[in-house]
Structures
1.
Amino acid sequence: MVVIKYYNFNLKNKIETIKTHTVDEKIQVDEIKVFENNLYGIKRKWKILSSHNSVDFIKRILCPSDNVMLTYYHDEKGEMSKYLVYIDFGKYNVSSGNIEFQDQELDLLVYNNLKYKILDMDELLNAFDCEKITFSDMQKILITLEQFINNFNYLGIIDAINLKFGPNAINWLLKNKTSIV
């Protein structure tokens, strides 16, 4: 079964809504930042929906121009403590004070040791086969993924994400990160 996640960020009321086939949650946002290049920073406490009970809070960078969402999980001891940044590929709909993100299944996980892993390629292809994702959207996702991988390999991960999103946004995102090996 193909499950598309929808995120809605109500900037005026500081609420993040997450919708799937089993989840419909509204979560209070603690901090909203606006960075150069139309990037938005969102910080909120962790809401336990199914797992990852050791996460304290998350920070997100919303990047409508590149159709990606970066997430940092502040986790001192759990599985996500190994993650530097989690990149979701999707598509945005931006209106006055409201940002919607439709997760298009493909993810790129960057670990603290600066290795990375492509996740859920099979889910992306399955979503395309079930007509939940258009051919055009899939092309955009794969081109963006290719750009990330090429830049990671050419510049290194930290320099690549700083160049792509700007050091102000990335410094804010990773401010509470205690270790990068």
2.
Amino acid sequence: MEYTVELNGKEYSLPTFKKSVRKEIERVTAGNESKKESDKKSLDMYLLVKKLIGDEAALEVFESDDMEEIDLNMITVAFIRICAAYDKPINESAKVDPFNGMNEENKRLVMGVINNASALQNMMDAPRPSVVAFARGMH
């Protein structure tokens, strides 16, 4: 698979999502959720982004290689977008159309059956007076 991330209006290639990449992302994510100081969190994200998109691309994206000059929000945005780029194939494959290839008439028929089944289930689940309460009312 090929992975790309869009940063500052330009697309950058990412390496294949191998075990080593996943472990690095997990490490940085865990660090972000820890009590680690903010500067260390930003540095970890920056170094990973730089590793994944390359030194030249990182310089282009961040406009500097000096952490004092880089917009820290851009580092976070880049990290989030890289994670999203790696998740994209999984998220897209989960979007399966259950009616794929079915004409409108058949879709309506299936939906009618589902709605009728739901209505029947709702009737079965509705609270009913107990037999004892019913019997008491008969006396």
3.
Amino acid sequence: MAAAPGNIGPAGRALRGLGAGVLAALAVAVTIWLDLVWGAGQSLTGQPYALAPAQTITRASLARDALMASAPLVPPLALLAALAGPWPMRALAVALVLGGWYWAGDRVGARFAADQGAAWLPGETFGALIWQPVLTPALMALTALAYLWLIAVLNRPQTGPRGA
């Protein structure tokens, strides 16, 4: 039995949700990387990692760290993208993106060396290394808006060719 033109079916919705989750996690990683490169990253570049002193911080290692920190966000973002419809689900999705941005940024920052070579406590790195007064809120808002747009585009019903 074929699906109606406006109905993509559960498998199609799940695949679109997975695509949205992957793209949203990638957007989180890219904006965290941009926040680090444009913010505190310039002073961090060349310093050793706290738990691996033989490794130095570079722009490429910051990108790797941001990707690794945002990867666990894929399943919840994919689920919320697949279920997104009415505004409460979209509000929950935006809250998850913003909370995930904070969590991933804190995970990235936790790898950096503290003043005396000690590790950071949970939550300290976001305020000390990640947060930039104008840049960070702008990048977080940009990520949330991009995720909302992505959900809207991927969940738009397909009605067939136009002009026919």
4.
Amino acid sequence: MKKYFLLFCVSLFLLSCKKKCIVVEDFMLAESEYTILPFSENKYYIFKDVKEATLSDKELIEIEVLFQKMVTEHNERQVKWLAKHNKENPKNQWEKTGYELETKGFKRQYLPVINEKGEKEVWINFFCNDPKDVSWKTEIYDSGMADGGNCFYRLKINLATKQVYHLFIDSHSP
């Protein structure tokens, strides 16, 4: 039921746009694909001097719009970098940089907080497989940065300023 409500909200949001809108194609998160974790100061190192917050369905849609825009811009930069690399290295051609971001099939962990300015910020952890050793629905899944490449990435979004920042993509083996 919640996923249909979310789809309805996305449709309503897109219909209400009067300026250029970013279309959130195929956006529907099943409850099995994401979790919203509560913040705990003694547990998480991600934020400092913050308070716990919640996320509404409307905010999840807003996050998705900002996120999709960032992914598009990031992947466009990767295409340009790849073209430059291949032009400069004709004997070492690559098909991908390894840092392109995918979104389908990824699990997500949202950690919302209110910062010292009273703004809502969200840390989002993305990963493409189910962790075997930890319950990702209740605990932050840390890949250990062990050559996971673009299968593991995380970022922060400030909903008040609409800024997406601190994108971190795990390293990958050559």
